[in-house]
Every structure is written in C-alpha cells, then in structure tokens.
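Contributing: when you submit paired examples, paste them exactly as shown. First protein:
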Amino acid sequence: MHTVWKGAISFGLVHVPVKMFSATEEKDISMRYIHKRCTTPLSYVRKCTTCDTEVEWGEITKGYEYEPGRFVLFEKEELEKISGEATKEIKILDFVNLTDIDPIYFQKTYYLSPGDTGANAYNLLLESIKQTGKIGIATISIRSKSSLAAVRVIDNCIALETIFYPDEIRAISQVPNLPEASNVNDKELTMAKMLIEQLSTPFEPEKYQDEYRTALMEAIQQKVAGEEVQVAPEQKRTNVIDLMSALQASLEAVKPVAADKSDAKAKAKPKAAAKPRKPKETAKETVS
C-alpha cells in the first residue's frame, strides 16, 4: 500500500511514530470524455483567460475571493503553517465511547502502522484502546486541510477515521416534510416489525456486490468484442393498492427465505444423543 502520510500520534507526553495508509479504495470503472466526431479523448488545460495561455503548475498559487474579482493569495507554505500540517501530528484531545458518535460524522478511514521507530509505543496505545474500549478524538492536517479524527482499533491495527466538524453537519430541521409526530396504524406497525425481523441477518459484507459495476464491465467486454450490448429487461413492478397490502405481500415473499434459514440452522445444530432403551418400553425420538 502507498504511504499517504507520516507523523506521530500524541496523547499526553507520549509520541507514537506512525505511517498512514488509505483503508479503502474506489472500484469505479474509469471513463473518459470523448469527442463524438473524431473519437479523440478530451484534454483539460489550466488556461489563464487574461494572458490567453496555458499555465504551468509552478506558476499556480491559491487565493480567496473576498470581493468579486479581488483575491488574497496564499503560498503552499503559508497554508501548511496555518493548518498545522508541518507538525505532522495526530493530537489526541479526548477519549470517548464509540457509541457516543453518530455514524453521520464519519468520513474516510485510514490504517496506521508503526513508524520506523516506536513499535513498543504503538503496541502500548493499541492495547490500551482495546482494553478500555475507548476511542481517541484527535486533530490532524492532511494536504492543507485540518480535520477532526477518531483513533480506534480494528483487529490488531490502529485506525484513524476523519470526522466532520459539528458545523459541517446539516441540521435535521432543514429536511422538508418530516412528520411532526409519530402517527402510524398499529396493525401496519406490527407487520412492518415482523418484516424487519424476517429480513434480519448477520452482516456479511461479502454477499453484497456492485451490480452496476459488474453489468458495466460486461457491456464493455461485449462492445470490445463487437457485440451488441445485451441488457436484461427490468422486472415489472406490481401496483400495490395500499400499505397493508404491500406489507402482506412482502411478508409472503420472504417466508420461503426465512424457512430456508431455519432449515439450515436445524441441520447445523447437532442432535442430542438418544437415551438407552428401557426394557419393554419404546424409546422416544429426541427432537432437537
């Protein structure tokens, strides 16, 4: 994996040298914009409209438009100094319970490995977090951007998850048309809860596949082979008259699946050993 950042975790007076790696990767199929007329891929240039010329990266800086057409400029070193990126530090401010953080705050996950030195300090922090069940709330600057972060343990690895600042989370009150009070039909609620129970299962991420990416790759391969793209017809949706009918139909649809799960559990569960037969008595089969 490619190292995206090097620095140290600090909590109290303890410093833990670490290297950072991205824990996730996008699997999107990359496509380019093509000129239909000649099928040439389009290119994008950094052009100055005043000088009417292409601008090299070395001639580019960043600026903030405080009035229309008026900017204050910042060099890379200035931004790094302001953001604290130059310190290369993950500074833990507090330790909290993971359940105290709503998932809406989480952004991106990184793995942290021990640096070239300080393996003992890394192991100490890892075990301390494991045994206390806490996570650290820290600050970090990556690529001139300051972020809050959660420092936690995944298996035998310390992980860092960047999290939004509170003012970056939009208030629920901004969502239109939310119901003012819960007013649902008791029978519908009972059936909805039954449906949720029927569909409940342990989380197994491996069984969820990106169907769009699979279909797109198949279409690409067909086009490369000079074939017409074959797309499966969409399943017709049944017009459901009311919510109760929809719930009833949904429950009926998942019953075979639920039955299969029950059968699988029954087969997996070992049967109790049969009791020895007594004289002149018929042994009863033990049902497990």
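Second protein:
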Amino acid sequence: MASKSPSSMSSLRSMQSMRRGVAYVLGGGGGGGGGGGRLYLQPSGLVNGFPWPLLRGPAFLPTLLASGSDSGLVPLAPDGSSDPTAAEMADVVERYYEVLDENNQGVIGMGENDTGATFAGIGEPTFRLDEICDAARIIHERRHGVPLRLVTTMLPADVGGADDVAQRIADARISDVTINLCAENPKAFQTCTDALVEQYTLENPNEAKHAVPVPTDAFANICALIEALSTRGVAVECCAVEAPGASTANTRALAEALGATSFRTRSYHP
C-alpha cells in the first residue's frame, strides 16, 4: 500500500499525545496531498559547538523559532534529556499518516508525491544515530514505502567513522542525506565554526554550557561521509550558505568531487 503524504500542520495538531518538539512541519507550498509541507522529526537537542541554524546568520534562528506556533518547531532540551526514543519517533510518523488517511489526504499514482519524513532539527541529529536507524526500521516495517531523509552538519566524535555511519544509514534504508557543508577547506571550516561557537557562547551561555566541542577532525569526517554515502547508493545533497566571504562555488566543486548528487545554496540572514 502506498503511504500518504504529509499535507498540513493540522495533522500534527490533532495528535494530542505527541510531545512538543518531537515533530514539526515546514514548507507549505508543495510535496504532499492537500498542498502542505514536509514532516520533520527532531532526534536531539545536543549540538556540536553551536546549533546549525546559526550558519544562516544571526536573524535566521529567531525567525525560525517564531514560526513554532505554525510549524510545531520548538527546541528540545540542550542537554539531550528530552530527546525522543526510536519508538516515539516511529509512532509519530505512523499516527501522522493515520490522520491523513482519516482525512482522505492521500497520494496519487504510486506515491510519487509522498514527501515522507526527515530527521532534522535545531540540534545535531546524529547524536542519536542509533535511535534514528531503529526508528527508520520500525517505520518501514509499518509502511514500506515511506521515503526517509537525514540532515547533518558534522558527526559527533563518538558516533563512529564515516564508513561505519554511512553503512548504518544505508542499512536503515534512509535514502537521502542532506549535509550542511560549512566551508570548502579545513582552514575556512575552522574559522567559520570558531566564530559561531564564540557567538553561541556569548549569546546563549546557559544553553552553550551543554554544547559538545566541535571535533578536531569534523571537516575531514563530513567530507569522508559524503564519499562513503555516495558509494553506498545514498543520494547526498550538499548545502552551502551564501554568507559574507563564503565561496559557494568552491564548496560546490568540493561536494561534486566527493560524489554529492545535488547541491543547493541557502540564503543568509544578517
């Protein structure tokens, strides 16, 4: 049976048992039946040094959080204490699709407009890679055709090497991975992340004390992950922010050389 496609925030609002912050919907212009947005699952509140939305400029995260009443996006605890379990994330997806079924908000044809679910959030999802992979297996046991995507910025130091991580993602049948590629070389990456860690620490000292330090080999690992995923048949999209001084052309060249299947630039919000 083809799965249904997420169509609106109203489906999330109808799920009274869902904890706030576990799931949210972004984008109202396409993808699903009924013209709604994409379903996102937020696996963790932990961050490597800083929340990834800071890459998009100081005004982006406040704007994103201000949309929470419409999207359902609220931060999880910065120490990881409110991170959802695999079963909780899988149950959200199942109930969400059930609500769509109940409201006759279905897909067409063979499910080509099913946008599925994306593991993403304010924190770094791969802190909970085990839970993500377990949730993916449960989701696919219930609804075989649900497309799943993962968004990451940098791998935590203790999650494993790029080859191991890529194999786990492929084994869990997560078909697409979006990688926020901060820069085109190690020096630019270090400059970018150092500045964002400093900004986060100054502006959010209570939350920043829970941040995990940026791994010393973060740039090398994220580059290795792009290559490892590509060789395993996972579609890799790389994104770069059009920030002042950034060379998105060089970042694109790096992404393509490593095997990324697509590249996208994102706007900067000063």
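If you have annotations for the second protein, write them as plain sentences, like these:
DSSP finds ten helices and seven strands in the chain.
The first strand starts at residue 23 and ends at 26.
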